[in-house]
Amino acid sequence: xxxxxxxxxxxxxxxxxxxxxxxxxxxxxxxxxxxxxxxxxxxxxxxxxxxxxxxxxxxxxxxxxxxxxxxxxxxxxxxxxxxxxxxxxxxxxxxxxxxxxxxxxxxxxxxxxxxxxxxxxxxxxxxxxxxxxxxxxxxxxxxxxxxxxxxxxxxxxxxxxxxxxxxxxxxxxxxxxxxxxxxxxxxxxxxxxxxxxxxxxxxxxxxxxxxxxxxxxxxxxxxxxxxxxxxxxxxxxxxxxxxxxxxxxxxxxxxxxxxxxxxxxxxxxxxxxxxxxxxxxxxxxxxxxxxxxxx
Length: 295
What we know:
Elements: E1 12-14, H1 42-52, H2 87-110, E2 119-122, E3 126-129, E4 132-135, E5 141-143, E6 148-151, H3 155-161, H4 168-186, H5 189-197, H6 202-231, H7 238-248, H8 251-259, H9 272-285
Parallel strand pairs: 1-2, 2-6
Antiparallel strand pairs: 3-4, 5-6
Helix pairs in contact: 2-4, 4-6, 4-7, 5-6, 6-9, 7-9
């Protein structure tokens, strides 16, 4: 990924290794860019998808341990806190976040709307959010209560070594997926889904959650489309890296690895094939209205 071409985001809060360094001070000042281009419709997402969805209270989105919060991956085992700040990693994260900002700002503006940018919090070991306390074992997650993405950068090592999905674009996919959950929150989709999950069976609730996760994958693909078409950030092999990551964290793949069999009614994120399919759909079409995962 040609991420050094991208604008670095200001919306990063660094809580690693002590008191929060307010949005990384001047060290990561700059802007990020995202894939911009024809929005085919966050407005249409609101009309087409929100009309189909029923909702849920955003404050309940982050059921972190159960994976029903919008996190990209399931729980991990304990890991050691990150070491000293890795400037290269920090700049990469700021560039990817900045590029998503550029994409979604453009797409929202095309619909006559304003995009409220999320903040990305870097932490090591553990962190407290408006959704509660979480450890690094949780993996990256989005909290609708404070509209922030939380990321321990040591997860990128796990993504490569444990999940077999190396590469900078695999990491970018993780960030863009969590930003997809932010878009669901600010457009009202999250709230409607949470409402729909009340009073239904566990299997039905899980099915709605799968729709949420697959839609976030699709929205990550929309970003990738515009990052490649508008800013030429995509290199040969990048999309394959994202697809490998999507496959590595599919519910069926993880359940087979953990217990040797799968329980489809317990899925909360979708199968490997589904995650790849919806990321690909967003990437190929570049429009949010292509991301109706609730039909």
